[in-house]
Description:
Blueprint: H1 3-23, E1 25-31, H2 39-53, E2 57-63, H3 66-78, E3 85-89, H4 93-98, E4 102-103, E5 120-123, E6 126-130, E7 133-134, E8 137-142, H5 143-148, H6 162-175, E9 180-183, H7 192-204, H8 224-238, H9 249-255, E10 263-269, H10 273-280, E11 284-287, E12 298-300, E13 303-308, H11 314-324, H12 327-337, E14 340-341, H13 344-347, H14 360-369, E15 370-372, H15 379-394, H16 399-416
Parallel strand pairs: 1-2, 1-3, 9-10, 12-15
Antiparallel strand pairs: 3-13, 4-13, 5-6, 7-14, 8-10, 8-11
GO molecular function, one term: maltose binding
Pfam families: SBP_bac_8
Keywords: Signal, Sugar transport, Transport
Amino acid sequence: MTMLTRVSAILLASTCLAGAAAAQAELTFWQHGAGNPWEPRLFGQIVEDFNASQSDWKVTLQQFPQAAYNDSVTAAALSGELPDIIDVDGPLMPNWAWAGYLAPLEITEEELEGFLPGTIGRWQDQIYSVGLWDAAVAMITRKSTLEKYGIRVPTLGEPWTGEEFNAALETMKESGDFEYPLDLGMWDKVEWYPYAFSPFLQSFGGDIVDRSTYQTAEGVLNGDAAIAFGEWWQGLFTDGLVPGTSQDPADGNQAFGFRDGKYAIVWSGNWNGAGVLEAFGDDALFLPAPDFGNGPKIGAASWQFAVSAQSENQQGANAFIRFALQDKYQAMFSDASGLAPATATAAQMTENYKEGAPMAVFYDLSAAQALVRPVTPGYVVQSAVFRKAVSDIADGADVATALDAAVDEIDADIENNQGYGH
Length: 422
């Protein structure tokens, strides 16, 4: 080989290497878990593994405090600076899709077969988001407490009826052993109210909005079923069965573990399950929601992955999401957080959700009782309106008046937004 040939070969090789390096697209991923003790580590591991698994894309993770996250995404959307991969709270997804922030995923229904329904975000018959886990709530109490007061232990197949549940609360109140028989977590005044309390309304037969059209709340938020819910709800407070809206956040957090014995039952989620088990072991019970006449309901849909409509590398963003959905990452996240993994196969890889494990009931609850919040861009407003209505009713407002006012506000917002694209 002549000197000229060798130089040409070196230049050609250098050009090929430079081209290969340039071909690796940079992807940005925004996530809401900054400050959390385990989310930066877990998501950082997924990003590191994905980057090492292939040479086409390189993902960079940027994490935000949850309180500032949604505002950061909205500001970035308005300025045309959205990241490629977005973390989105399930009930908020339709609003971001409708607003043009998100692109439909390139992940098929077949790929998501076996995922809990609440972990898949759909809007206008397309999949826009998917998550590694779901949150689930239960009536958390102790076997010894129910035994002491002669209260039946409900099952998934035979939950408490509304009458049984009310009677159990009255029995425990009359014992004088508790400050309140039930803690609803009234101190948490943000998304907890519609997530945790609208399932009671839905079990009565009402809803936040009419899901057949998503064009009105009339009849579902102020009809007979909703009035019955509102009267029952107000009775919890007037009868002294639960703390009111002025409940101290510190008091509420402490009650989740029953450590001070103030409450007989707490309406709380699987994210607190490990702490309850640590405190009470085999005496702990995670019970299904009561059935108020239209089946027991609990909330569904937590944080999920989505792809930005502004991304120039949507293929890579979808590849990352598909990679992150592996069972091993679901299991890793579940073991760290206590949340339910998205698939049954991943559940078998976890400490708390595998068959026979103490928190496996939460996976069963999600599969059997979970109902997503209204799938509409208008939910952003409807959520706030519902929060105010149940707060006002808890504080003594006339039930029918409060619900009629909520319907008027929701319907006006839907009209002002031309039906939100439904």
